[in-house]
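Weekly structure sync, notes
Attendees: PL (lead), two postdocs, one rotation student
Agenda item 3: pending single-chain targets
PL asked that the sequence for the first pending target be pasted directly into the notes so everyone works from the same version. It is reproduced below exactly as submitted, 566 residues in total.
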Amino acid sequence: MSALDWLIVLGLNGAIIAYGLRRARGTSTSGEWFLSSRALPWWAVGLSLFATNMDNSEFVSATGTIASEGLHFLSAHTFGGLVGVTIATFLIVPAIYRAGLYTNSEYLEHRFGPGTRVLGALIQIQYRTSVLGLMIWSVHLTLVGVGGLRPALSWALIVSLVLLSGVYTAVGGLRAVVATDVLQSVLVMAGGLAVCIAVWQAVGGWNAMVAQLESLGTTAEGLAPGLAAADLVHVSAFRGRDGTTSPAVIFIAWILISSGWWTVSHTSTQRMMGARSLWDMKMAGVLGVGVSLVILLFTGMLGLFGRAQFPVFARPDEMYPHLISTYLGIGAKGLVVAGVVSAAVSTFDSMGSSMSAVFTRDIYARFISRDRHDAHYLRVGRMATVAILVLGFAYLPLILRAPTMLAAFRSVTSVFVTPLLIVYLVGAVTRTNRRVGMAGLATGGLYGVVGFVDREVIDVSWLPSWLTGQWEAFVWAVAFTAAGCAFAALHPRWRETVGVGTAGVEAAAGDASPPGADDWLAKSSGELGPIRLHPFSERVPLLASPALYTGLLAAISAWLVFGVFW
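Predicted structure, written out during the meeting:
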């Protein structure tokens, strides 16, 4: 890259980080730091959700996965995102919001007891730091492949980005994070569209790309087993790495993966819970999903165009940086890399803010050090921010072993995240007893661990692939978790255990020392103020109805997946 390109990268991102440090000033209470005092408008929350959802690892991994396996990934940001945001904004997060809670793991204790809360918090930290590892690796690939940096210099720059984003996040909390996310989202979109337009023009458009893929047959290097290059344009063509998985199973798996991000991940629910009203929360979810869908359509197609132009390309995850380096000139290349860096910083600050909140409230303040001053927990949250960000580096060995970055992510996600998603759903829509949550996590998690060991550690010969395969694991995780929940719900000795639905919270007999009225966790909930249904003077206008736009996105998703690309 030229000096002008680096000036663009450093100038744009330096300005955003400086803005974040400026917005961080004045944050003095835990309510401001963790949830921005529940005062964020829908458009800011929605763009923040997009900036965190469509980070650089998404661009790199989506391009690489589609270049190798085809358009099945489209299901994740169409029906997957739509189902996930509907579950989150219409069912689960409103229950947390109304209860005056700060984290979704906090809701698990109110619904199922303290043990479920701890497990939920640990699962979240493991889940989101694994995604952080994907982001770190994708940024490294881009800085080396596009920027031409030596690996050592690339890692030094990444560590600097982690520390800088950690500083303004630690000082300003969610308010600073969302403020910078809004600006970063614009830069991410501009960079992504710039590379899409350049590659589209160089290849000659969609028809020229399809003709090139058809001419390649099965000769392209790096394709998934059993695929011809022309198959990449179809959602249903990919049948797993072993060629035996039903497209329906893969479609369901993507819905579960995306639903887990919108519901289980406090990275997303924290932003929703910082919204100024329940209407703002729902509209923010619709905006986040809608913008993500549009950007994925553009950037995801880069995998198809890249495969058509470079049939001999053995490492799919390097396709996105290679396209930037090949087709963009001076200035444009700097804009795209600026978007890559901005997406990374957005994810770093989001992970730090949300997971430090989970650690501070759901583990430290609840079980380690209770009844301290608000300033003490604010300080702990700030220190935890940096520690959380450092954990992302631990996942690099697993990512390097996988055929693609998304393959590594999928293998980890089914272990605990899908069981936790089912437990949240059971808690939100039923009034079953409090033993159900732990029972469901135990059976679903045990299956997940066994499947992960069989896939990634030791090949257990007597376990069939249809039981522990990477895609099948998501469906089985639902089945095993549901079985555990059903057993606990029907057990004659547990059926009388107090259980609650979304309307309230009760303590079960035997729950160890729940937070009292004078506890910091309870006191801080009182800082959040009254609950607003919507910001309108009367009822919500029809054209401002979140349900209307959710239905519109559902129709568009059905047309794209089943009508155009299936």
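Discussion points:
- Confidence is low (pLDDT under 50) at residues 500-512.
- Residues 36 and 175 are 5 Å apart (CA to CA).
Action: rotation student to compare against the earlier draft before next sync.
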